[in-house]
Amino acid sequence: MSEEAEKLQRPRSEALNEILGVPFKVLDDGFIRVVDYMGSDESIVQAARVSYGKGTKKVSEDRGLIRYLMRHHHTTPFEMCEIKFHVRVPMDCWRQWIRHRTANVNEYSTRYSIAIDTAQKTPANEWRLQASGNKQGSEGFINEEMGRKFTQREEELYQTSWKVYQERLEAGIAREQARKDLLLSTYTESYWKIDLHNLIHFLALRMDDHAQYEIRSYANTIGYEVLSKWCPFVWEAFLDYRFQSMAFSRLELDLMKVISGGKKKEAVELAIKYGWLSGEGNLKRNREREEFENKLQFLDIEAPWKELV
Amino acid sequence: MSEEAEKLQRPRSEALNEILGVPFKVLDDGFIRVVDYMGSDESIVQAARVSYGKGTKKVSEDRGLIRYLMRHHHTTPFEMCEIKFHVRVPMDCWRQWIRHRTANVNEYSTRYSIAIDTAQKTPANEWRLQASGNKQGSEGFINEEMGRKFTQREEELYQTSWKVYQERLEAGIAREQARKDLLLSTYTESYWKIDLHNLIHFLALRMDDHAQYEIRSYANTIGYEVLSKWCPFVWEAFLDYRFQSMAFSRLELDLMKVISGGKKKEAVELAIKYGWLSGEGNLKRNREREEFENKLQFLDIEAPWKELV
Amino acid sequence: MSEEAEKLQRPRSEALNEILGVPFKVLDDGFIRVVDYMGSDESIVQAARVSYGKGTKKVSEDRGLIRYLMRHHHTTPFEMCEIKFHVRVPMDCWRQWIRHRTANVNEYSTRYSIAIDTAQKTPANEWRLQASGNKQGSEGFINEEMGRKFTQREEELYQTSWKVYQERLEAGIAREQARKDLLLSTYTESYWKIDLHNLIHFLALRMDDHAQYEIRSYANTIGYEVLSKWCPFVWEAFLDYRFQSMAFSRLELDLMKVISGGKKKEAVELAIKYGWLSGEGNLKRNREREEFENKLQFLDIEAPWKELV
Amino acid sequence: MSEEAEKLQRPRSEALNEILGVPFKVLDDGFIRVVDYMGSDESIVQAARVSYGKGTKKVSEDRGLIRYLMRHHHTTPFEMCEIKFHVRVPMDCWRQWIRHRTANVNEYSTRYSIAIDTAQKTPANEWRLQASGNKQGSEGFINEEMGRKFTQREEELYQTSWKVYQERLEAGIAREQARKDLLLSTYTESYWKIDLHNLIHFLALRMDDHAQYEIRSYANTIGYEVLSKWCPFVWEAFLDYRFQSMAFSRLELDLMKVISGGKKKEAVELAIKYGWLSGEGNLKRNREREEFENKLQFLDIEAPWKELV
Fold first, then answer.
1. In angstroms, what CA-CA distances link D189 with A60, A180, C52, D186?
2. The predicted structure's pLDDT at residue A60
3. Does D76 touch chain C (CB under 8 A)?
4. Among candidate residues A86, A103, A96, the one with its CA nearest the CA of residue A210
5. Rounded to an integer, what is the distance from CA C190 to the centroid of its chain?
6. φ and ψ at residue A291, rounded to 5 degrees
7. CA atoms of A185 and A179, how far apart (whole Å)
8. Could you tell me the sign of the dihedral formed by the alpha carbons of D170, D172, D175, D176, in that order?
């Protein structure tokens, strides 16, 4: 088969080919790099058009079709693309990563081989404080002086744990058991292969503000450095229709209707009915009301109960 | 990135490239053809070696490693290869095919488009008879004269059903409803994408003698025409360690031990204990004993109870 | 273990117990019935609270927690519930159903047994017309007189195909082959087992207006007759946060902002920039603009370009 | 619905009910306990019989049918049973466990809550030595005197790492970050829900001699303490047809034929052809030959090349 013919059958992404095998650094000593891939924007269109059958004329431009598929959750054509990464990730972060079950994984085995002698170390100015409003989040940083202490303590702990590991190996203890007291911050490596539909799902969850900083760093690198090059139409549609979209619940929609009709009093009554405001219209904390207020603020609309405060 | 460098990152199979896009005919009007793929024998080795880490020397030749992985059910490296087919299959057969859940599918939509005007027709000499011993099998053929009658009847039925379909469409009935009385023998088309581990599982089940002739024809074509070219080491290992292997149960192993020690009487007693022979040593039908007898026969070993007959 | 203690360990839903095994009719001769289940609203809460650990006090009421989980796509606790149905469905509809891969299935085998002698027949007043705007939808009905003709034609076709099937069986043709020309409208039966997270996904897609009438009928029965009883909090949250929610894309949100600020001219300019309006502000058909107009209409907001018409 | 009727619809396992909620200790501070379940031996039979249709008489006894299904890899009826565990497992072991992707999981969150203050500690007499022949195994133990030293070192390391963790929390560092240097031996807890087919696969891999001691301990507890009570017929069939079965490859079968015919010379020639013996019949190490020799030994058959040594 000629080089020409092969291209037709096996669409490539020139921009992705440029970075094949090139590692993108993440965190202090982690990376992701693309090892192989299959498909492109084109393949999605090709798969979607199977549905239309031979006789059908080109319904719309490729970009338009991809945007339509993304907007309406027609997910199967995106499954026709596949990508394989080589990643280096702290085990602590890998614990979250591996929860995405619809992927293929070959991980570096510390049962077979000696562990990788590197761990994610936190610099003095990156120790994050517990978020006040969110039990599973962080906000702001500890002051650098204290940070220095914790950074040093971490380094010492790492040295101790690695020494213990080495002593065990030297005494002939089995690798599978010697590893048991490695720190969660130790790096591991994996081949990670996933289809584009599930990659998008991974990015939607892990690029999100609520994702932990570490895995978010990996997701952002995959999104902005890889997907944007591999399937530019998909990337754009992902940002427009998923990542930067906003969902309104039935309750919120009903309230929006009343608000856009200018009926403030009815809006307050509805919010009371929802339990978002107390009977007297008091603004005690209510999570769902606050989420709605954030959405209104984003739209430059004033909450009808603001003056109640 | 140079063509050279790309090859390193993205292993190809020259033999598979030769047949990219080329349809292989199956049944009277079906086909399979490879649309795209990712990986090769090499990628499996590459993935398996992630486990051994950087410092490890080449443990064994590629072929040997692949055979080892197959023999010991180390399945994850095989998941690192992926292949995409375009297939045309009778709906009746597709009903079995689609039960393999770990694949990605885009099927031709008869909701969106007019159905494909072709069905699998059975020639006069291919009407199979119900198997006597196996409720879900067939054996032998009906005589050709009767076969001709059934072939003609099938053609008439197809014409009638297609006419009904056409009349509905012409009267403006929705495609999604008009299709409801198409025959199961009508062909459908799909893009079908699957990783190599799951493809092997598909082949092991569907190339098997007990699989229905129709889907077996597709599986054989995929195995002998595609996999054998794509990943020749995997194909060879699959035949040696899975497809042409044989499992012996705990019961069978215990019997084999006694038989290979030449202790016929003990063997008969054991078989009676298993319930494979009646107390008096009578040879009434017993499915599990018969399965074991077939295995013995394959090994040119005489069943110790043969003389009892 | 006492009956009392067992209840604690194995939460039941009294309302669901009432209908265990009871078939709910769907279409002319189909049904769904619950055969078994595991879990309840309570189990979801129990699973979610594993995260909080022993020392944590009851964060919120069960209902509130379930609503929070649904709103924020915390899907894993819903996977802790499981339900098993026995269903009878036309094969044509089953072809769509089976595409939901994350379920367990045992289907009636027409390879092993004789097919079920019943097919979904369409009454004279239920032949649907092809939708004009939607290639894969229907709207309105054909007139009843013509409908009668099609209903009769369908009955004849069914009789013919069933007769052909019978003749084949009588001549000894294998069941696996004899079935090949059954009509797609023939009923099949299955055991179908799925976890609650995936059931919700099934319902979201199949209760939707765009789902085909037939499968929508099954989905509605499962939703309104079963899920509403089994896990009433989940059902309510599903309706509020998924089924009756509405998503706005980044483009729509940006437009909403401008519109809610009363800046009509800017809104029109933005829509032109999006390609939703032609440069001259002409209202030629644009799918995405029309989708947005529908959302605005739902919210009782006038599209800023309405006066352009 | 009466208690009686409910039992019919929702088969229970009395023996399993006895241990619902009861923790079985594993390792020094781990456990597994059954929280809920669905189905029993009976449900498998019920599902398998869907295939046979209404008119079919009871083909065989339940036990026989289950054994048949297991023997012939008819896996879907086993998927009709589901079980939910609450487990406490060292994170190091959980890393292996979680690789089984077809399960539902809710894990204790150290992002949300403070980590569980207990880790798996190795007693002085349980430090295992690296296996000589198997890069990923262990054999024998280190002498107890040295063991005491390693046990003490481990305890000190744990205390240090826990103190560092506590200091971070006290300084207000976010839980999601404070946890990064916990030891892999720290216990975690999860709800783990899986269907019976996939549980069997888990047991087959993890009860195996080659599985690491720690996860094997969990698998054995689940097998011998839970599955044996829940579905006794399945457990028996699993042991007979999977766990204690043995597979022979095409190469091994061909050799067995020659050996059982008493043709030693041909056997040696075949082994040379396979590359299992060097051309001169030398017995240098060959992994596949050694595996075959182990099988022959199990069957009390002498390897035909033994006298060559």
1. 51, 17, 11, 10
2. 54
3. yes
4. A96
5. 17
6. -60, -40
7. 13
8. negative
Determine the angle formed by the axes of helices B264-274 and B250-260, rounding to 10 degrees. Answer: 160
Closest CA–CA distance from residue A297 to any residue of chain D (Å): 28
DSSP string of A155-202, one letter each residue = HHHHHHHHHHHHHHHHTTB-HHHHGGG-BTTBEEEEEEEEEHHHHHHH
Distance separating the N- and C-terminal Cα atoms of chain A: 74
Could you tell me which chain A residue has the CA closest to the CA of C210? Answer: A72
Report the residue from B95, B160, B212 with minimal CB separation from C160: B160
* A250 contact partners, CB below 8 Å, separation of at least 6: C239, C240, C241, C244, C245
Q: The domain at C3-116+186-243 falls in which architecture? A: 2-Layer Sandwich (3.30)
User: Which one of the listed residues C67, C88, C179, C206 is annotated catalytic?
Assistant: C206
Tell me, what's the pLDDT at B307?
A: 74
The predicted model scores a pTM of 0.95
| C-alpha–C-alpha distance, residues A257 and A249, integer Å | 12
Residues of D in contact with C190 (CB under 8 A): 50
Rounded CA-CA distance A147/A123 in Å is 8
Token output for B308: 């009892």
Q: Is any Cβ of chain B less than 8 angstroms from the Cβ of C167?
A: yes
In this prediction, residues A221-238 reach a mean pLDDT of 97
Amino acid A98: pLDDT: 97
Residues of D within 8 A of A180 (CB-CB) are 90, 92, 120, 122, 183-185
- For the stretch C175-196, pLDDT in tens is 999 999 999 999 999 999 999 9
Cα separation, C3 vs C74, in Å, equals 33
pLDDT tens digits along A76-125? 999 999 999 999 999 999 999 999 999 999 999 999 999 999 999 999 99
Interface ipTM = 0.92
Q: What angle do CA A87, D90, A179 make, to 5 degrees?
A: 55
Distance of residue C208 Cα from the nearest chain B Cα, in angstroms: 16
Q: Is the pLDDT of residue B31 over 80?
A: yes
Neighbors of chain D by Cβ distance (3+ pairs < 8 Å): A, B, C
Contact between A85 and A33 under an 8 Å Cβ cutoff? The reply is yes
d(CA D191, CA D203): 18
Pick from C266, D241, A207: nearest CA to B250: D241
- The pair phi, psi for residue A150, each rounded to 5°, is -70, -35
With beta carbons under 8 A apart, name residues in chain A contacting C239. 250
β-bridge partners, B130: B138
CA–CA distances in Å: residue A240 to residues A11, A142, A243, D120, D216: 25, 36, 7, 48, 48
> In the prediction, which pLDDT does D59 show?
46
D256 vs B: CB within 8 A: yes
Residue with the two structure tokens 């009746």: B92
DSSP code per residue over A100-114: --SSEEEE--TTTSP
Tens digit of each residue's pLDDT (9 = 90 or more) over D256-308: 999 988 899 999 999 999 999 987 656 778 889 999 999 999 999 999 998 76
The fraction of chain D above a pLDDT of 90, given in percent, is 83
- Estimate the share of chain A in helix, then strand, then coil, as percent rounded to the nearest 5: 50, 15, 35
Instruction: Give the largest CA-CA distance in chain C.
Output: 78
Candidates D67, D88, D179, D206; catalytic one = D206
CATH architecture of D3-117+186-243: 2-Layer Sandwich (3.30)
Strand partners, B82: B38, B195
The CATH fold of domain A3-115+186-243: Gyrase A; domain 2 (3.30.1360)
Domain definitions of chain D by residue range: 3-117+186-243, 124-181, 250-308
Predicted confidence band at B201 (pLDDT cuts at 50, 70, 90)? very high
Query: Subunits touching B (CB < 8 Å, at least 3 pairs)?
Result: A, C, D
